[in-house]
Please model this.
Amino acid sequence: MSKTNHINRIPRAKGIDMAAFYSPKECGRKAKHIVFSADNERVVEEFITILGMKEQFAEHDVPMPNKMVMFGPPGTGKTLTAFHLAHRLQLPLVLVRLDAIIHSHLGETGSNVRKLFEYARANPCVLFLDEFDAVGRTRESNDEVKEMARVVNTLLQCLDEFEGDSILVAATNLETQLDQAIWRRFDTKMTYSMPDESSRRLYISKLMGQFEQESQLEDYTCERLTGCSYADVEQIVLKAKRKAIIASSPLHEQFINDAYVEYMPRVLAT
Ligand SMILES: Nc1ncnc2c1ncn2[C@@H]1O[C@H](COP(=O)(O)OP(=O)(O)O)[C@@H](O)[C@H]1O
Ligand SMILES: [Mg+2]
Model:
């Protein structure tokens, strides 16, 4: 397969070079194997349904949702959901890591945040603020605390004024550190967690696909990878496939087991 250009130079604006841009098609490719919990699937489908019913909502004078926040541990599909949404809504994705724009120059964060929201107002997109909790993180020095408070205020204002055809999506690993005033402004909230057995099984079967394998391998893998995040499951299955390819062999238990041991996932004791 040819190497694809991951960042498309689509409606790209001056002054927001901290953002990465992805076309809807690219987003679809990335989110191809996404697995949702039943609850999150419902929330996402409802969100998309509503966005397709603009006239009806205007008629009833009920505002459309346009701000979604996702909370949960790493590797459970928050970023992937942003790609999925952009694909389903056929909007470009504008991805920004909030920690990156804050940590480089705290003093410029407020104006950077404004620029992003201005961009989203003028250009329909899914504006995805990843590592969203970075805004709430307390700082060492007094000056930084004050500056951060200003950033939070700017963000609150931008959230309140956010309207038009763009969607704002934010993701955070740390629910508790997020400023309550910010949290309240999101109309749609989703919680992410480690895959349960059936989600893990579904994801493993998507990852293994048509790869030649010994029978019952999915059952073994599902059991062996208990406690792993989706991201861990993916890495371990890919590692095992590599081993099978270099050994010119079908995928079997030993490869899964070796990949697991080498990868050393951080599995929480249950
Ligand atoms: N729910 C999921 N369904 C399918 N794949 C997932 C899921 N969660 C994570 N992954 C895999 O792990 C990688 C990292 O996931 P990501 O969405 O970045 O996690 P998060 O943003 O929650 O830390 C993804 O690129 C994908 O390959
Ligand atoms: Mg992420």
About this structure: Confidence is low (pLDDT under 50) at residues 1-9.
